[in-house]
From TrEMBL:
An example Gene Ontology biological process: protein secretion
Protein family (similarity comment): Belongs to the SecG family.
Entry superkingdom: Bacteria
Annotated compartments: Cell membrane; Membrane
Organism: Actinomyces respiraculi
Protein name: Protein-export membrane protein SecG
Length: 80
């Protein structure tokens, strides 16, 4: 169980950082981190709907992995 717990903790940390990054990359409604790195320029020129949908899918997928890692850690702690 020690190996599984270590793998789940590493997965949780990596997915947490990636989830933060993908949420911050979303198109902002009023000046956020996405506007700071050029999101405002791309919104004026017209943003691609496909890119935003793909970012939504990636964010949802990472969120599911994050939630499963938390549930897995809880189950390991419960039955260890």
């Amino acid at each position: 169980m020690d190996i599984l717990e270590i793998i789940l903790k590493i997965l949780l940390v990596l997915s947490s950082f990636f989830l933060i990054a993908t949420v911050l990359l979303h198109k902002g409604r009023g000046g956020g981190l996405s506007d700071m790195f050029g999101g405002g320029v791309s919104s004026v020129a017209g943003s691609s709907g496909v890119a935003e949908r793909n970012l939504n899918r990636i964010t949802i997928g990472v969120g599911i992995v994050w939630a499963l890692a938390i549930v897995g850690l809880g189950l390991v702690a419960r039955f260890a």
